[in-house]
Write a structure and sequence with these properties.
The structure holds two protein chains of two kinds. By secondary structure, chain A is an alpha/beta fold. In chain A, about 45% of the residues lie in helices and about 10% in strands. A five-stranded parallel beta sheet of chain A has the order 1-2-3-7-6, sandwiched between helices. Chain A has a two-stranded antiparallel ribbon with strand order 4-5. Chain B has two domains: about 180 residues, Thiamin diphosphate (ThDP)-binding fold, Pyr/PP domains (Rossmann fold); about 130 residues, Rossmann fold. In chain B, helix 1 packs parallel to helix 7, helix 3 runs parallel beside helix 4 and helix 8 crosses helix 12. Classes of the chains: A alpha/beta, B alpha/beta.
Chain lengths: ~325, ~325
């Protein structure tokens, strides 16, 4: 598959934006500016990026507790995201959701999710709406290796299969669900093998190679748009940080972490782009500087934003008839 | 006496009971290698091994359902549901299976299960990690519901729960884990259905649960300065509910305020107030009041979350209203 330089640069920029955003969130958490649970996506940027590179604004995604990367790749606004993480009223959810519930329904982002395995049935439903309307939209469900052991995964994928829905289930296999390694949570080596149970295609890809993700996702999304039904894609990757900020990480070795850091998706892709001549060192620096400035601007916006007013506590529980 | 934190008291109860009875095992997400995300099962894997301390996949239905099967098969499972909010994923195994089996089978089942879980707001953990859902379980015949408020109660009630031959939902408020208190070293039990009078008083009865017990005690302290004498009653278990102790207290004080962190509508407070009204209507000098969360999900933003959680000020105001 030959990819337009413009797309390659979009992917590079998106991955780097996620990385810089997440690094900043980690720093802000450490100094107490971002409260609650924060699950960072650092190391897994190629997955959201390679998939969302194909998505239209009106396509749907369901995200997870580790959702910042999905949001950014789907076009989320850094300022509104940061304000939400700060709990301010200018945030995506008016400060009511926070990191685990950040969402932008106008961008087809049906929310991060605090419930592991909450996404697959919802993605099947969004895909049902897409099919029903016939506008060629798709629904992508991001989920973890751990989530793939939930009953909801089986139910959601089976329904999408039997109804031939335009859904793509993207398993971000980072080898752990909190402290439990994949080898202790399931017997299959490849979660993609589970596709056979639903008679749908299942692919394993190197989740730290954005091009590999892009190619597999491209085929799955083509199938979905063509009415050929769902696909399961398993992206093998690794989270560099703890499960949440503050995790002592007693369940994995520093050697394992170093091994995966050597496969960091961003320097890998950067080297490739430099070699291809799509990127120069100067341009890489320029992109990085721009992203750092955007992230700083998002932090300033969040810090300057007001807290929610106390009466907002009672608002938005129900939709009130117009 | 020696002091322990609430989490350490629970941990000691688990260890002592597991040493006593080899049929007890612990299962749940991150309970082994990690020692539980709030540290309650720390050191269990090292002492009791993988057979008895089981890290499960993320699979709440199977965590609870396998406890039902294992209990039917003669074991005494202590299953952990990391957050009470996750019960939705697995509710059937608890309320249709565990709770009803004995009755449906005409008495021929014995299900000594403890389901330990955490509840409560205060960490900015937002709408799916902060709820207080104890009233859901109170509505299900066949379940017992335990709601400790101190390290001492936590240890004694957990030991009772483990030795009980019924499914017990044991709810730990996450903001209490770090709280310290005196805890005897030897194992001891606290009977279910026995409320504890946490402070004696004569003007008004405040029934409070879990984290709210401490806010009620603070409120009582403040009110004492103004000459209002508050009796704080902690039911400790919601099923069985010690209506007698609560009613006796109200007969003495003639006024009632119930405080819980769960939303008011459909909360345990309604049941408690109704029981008192049924049994002691003539003794009441004022309509009972409930202090509870508003009818909303738990918000994330710290300013909204603090507005959501019932405060000492709100308890003080409610008490003043009923004694006015
Ligand atoms: C129903 C439910 N069970 C458990 C949890 C607690 N929890 C949050 S994230 C997580 C691990 C998820 O692992 P995985 O799906 O592999 O995603 P990862 O964190 O690795 O991205 C767990 C157990 C939860 N939020 N919801
Ligand atoms: Mg994982």
């Amino acid at each position: 598959m030959s990819i337009e330089p413009e797309n390659l640069l979009w992917m590079y920029t998106t991955m780097l934006t996620i990385r810089r955003f997440e690094e900043k969130v980690g720093e802000l958490f450490a100094v107490g500016k971002v409260p609650g649970f924060v699950h960072l996506y650092i190391g897994e940027e190629a997955v959201a990026t390679g998939v969302c590179a194909h998505l239209r604004k009106d396509d749907y995604i369901t995200s997870t507790h580790r959702g910042h990367g999905h949001l950014i790749a789907k076009g989320g606004d850094l300022k509104l995201m940061m304000a939400e993480l700060f709990g301010r009223r200018t945030g995506y959810c008016k400060g009511k959701g926070g990191s685990m519930h950040i969402a932008d329904v106008d961008l087809g982002i049906l929310g991060a999710n605090g419930i592991v395995g909450g996404g697959p049935p919802i993605a099947a439903g969004a895909a049902l709406a897409a099919k029903y309307r016939g506008a060629g939209q798709v629904a992508v469900c991001f989920l973890g290796d751990g989530a793939s052991n939930q009953g909801t995964f089986h139910e959601g994928v089976n329904l999408a299969s039997v109804w031939k829905l335009p859904a793509i289930f993207v398993v971000e296999n980072n080898m752990y669900g909190i402290s439990l390694s994949q080898t202790r949570s399931m017997r299959v080596q490849d979660i993609a093998d589970r596709a056979a149970a639903y008679d749908i295609p299942g692919f394993v890809v190197d989740g730290n190679d954005v091009i590999a993700v892009y190619e597999a996702a491209g085929e799955a999304i083509r199938r979905a748009r063509a009415g050929e039904g769902p696909t399961l894609i398993e992206c093998k990757t690794y989270r560099y940080r703890g499960h949440f900020e503050g995790d002592p990480m007693i369940y994995r070795t520093r050697e394992e972490e170093e091994m995966w850091k050597a496969k960091d998706p961003i320097p890998r892709f950067q080297a490739k782009l430099l070699e291809m001549g799509v990127l120069t060192e100067a341009k890489a620096k320029e992109i990085n500087d721009r992203i750092v400035a955007q992230v700083e601007e998002a932090v300033r916006f969040a810090e300057a934003s007001p807290w929610p007013a106390l009466e907002e506590l009672l608002e938005d529980v129900y939709t009130v008839a117009a | 006496m020696r002091t322990l934190t609430f989490a350490q008291a629970l941990n000691e109860a688990l260890k002592q009971e597991m040493r006593r009875d080899p049929t007890i095992y612990v299962a749940g997400e991150d309970v082994g290698v990690y020692g539980g995300i709030f540290g309650v099962t720390a050191g269990l894997l090292q002492e009791f091994g993988e057979d008895r301390v089981r890290d499960t996949p993320i699979t709440e239905s199977a965590i609870i359902g396998s406890a039902v099967g294992a209990a039917a098969g003669g074991l005494r499972p202590v299953a952990e549901l990391m957050f009470i909010d996750f019960i939705g994923v697995a509710l059937d195994q608890l309320y249709n299976q565990a709770a009803k089996m004995k009755y449906m089978f005409g008495g021929k089942a014995r299900l000594p299960i403890v389901l330990r879980t955490t509840c409560g707001a205060g960490m900015c953990a937002a709408a799916q990690h902060s709820q207080s859902l104890e009233a859901w379980f109170m509505h299900i015949p066949g379940l017992k519901v335990v709601v400790p408020s101190t390290p001492y109660d936590a240890k004694g009630l957990l030991i009772t729960a483990i030795r009980d031959d019924n499914p017990v939902v044991f709810i730990e408020h996450k903001m209490l884990y770090g709280m310290e208190g005196e805890v005897p070293e030897e194992p001891y039990t606290i009977p279910f259905g026995q409320a504890d009078i946490k402070r004696e008083g004569s003007d008004v009865t405040v029934v409070a649960t879990m984290a709210m017990v401490h806010k009620a005690l603070t409120a009582a302290e403040e009110l004492a300065k103004e000459g209002i004498s508050v009796e704080v009653v902690d039911p400790r278990t919601l099923t069985p509910l010690d209506v007698e102790t609560i009613v006796n207290s109200v007969k003495k004080t003639r006024r009632l305020v119930v405080v819980h962190e769960a939303v008011k509508q459909g909360g345990a407070g309604g049941e408690i107030v109704a029981s008192v009204v049924e049994e002691a209507f003539d003794y009441l000098d004022a309509p009972p009041k409930r202090v509870a969360a508003p009818f909303t999900p738990v918000p994330f933003s710290p300013v909204l979350e603090q507005a959501f959680i019932p405060s000492v000020e709100k308890i003080v105001a409610a008490v003043k209203e009923v004694v006015a």
